[in-house]
Amino acid sequence: MGRNVALTVVFFICLIGPAAVMAVMGKASIGALGRNPSAAPKILTAMIINLIFVEAIAVVALLVIWQLFTQKG
Questions:
Q1: Which of 6, 38, 66, 72 has the fewest Cβ atoms within 10 Å of its own Cβ atom?
Q2: CA–CA gap between residue 68 and residue 12 (Å, rounded)
Q3: How many domains does the chain have?
Q4: What DSSP string describes 21-72?
Q5: 32 lies in some domain
Q6: CA 67-65-63 angle, 5° bins
Q7: Is there a contact between 33 and 43 (Cβ–Cβ < 8 Å)?
Q8: Radius of gyration of the chain from its Cα atoms, rounded to whole angstroms
Q9: Does the residue 60 lie in any domain?
Q10: Rounded CA separation 49/42 (Å)
């Protein structure tokens, strides 16, 4: 029972971490667009690349946690 509780806590951390990063990134990009609207294409490109990396890290973390959940032991 203790192993499942620990893995569940780590699972939720793996979900909350990328969500927090996306929220901070969205706030920062909106602030940057407010200060310099003419830089929108550069800001959008950088934001999309960063979102891809955050999602990739989140998916890998969730796959690792899922693998740990399905192991017998």
A1: 72
A2: 14
A3: 1
A4: HHHHHHHHHHHHHHH-GGGHHHHHHHHHHHHHHHHHHHHHHHHHHHHHHHS-
A5: yes
A6: 70
A7: yes
A8: 17
A9: yes
A10: 11
Q: What angle do CA 13, 51, 53 make, to 5 degrees?
A: 75
User: Nearest to residue 33, comparing CAs of 21, 22, 46?
Assistant: 46
CATH code, 56: 1.20.20.10
Q: What is the pLDDT along the chain (73 residues), one digit of tens a residue?
A: 687 888 888 888 888 988 999 999 999 999 999 999 999 999 999 999 999 999 999 899 889 888 888 887 6
**pTM of this prediction?**
0.76
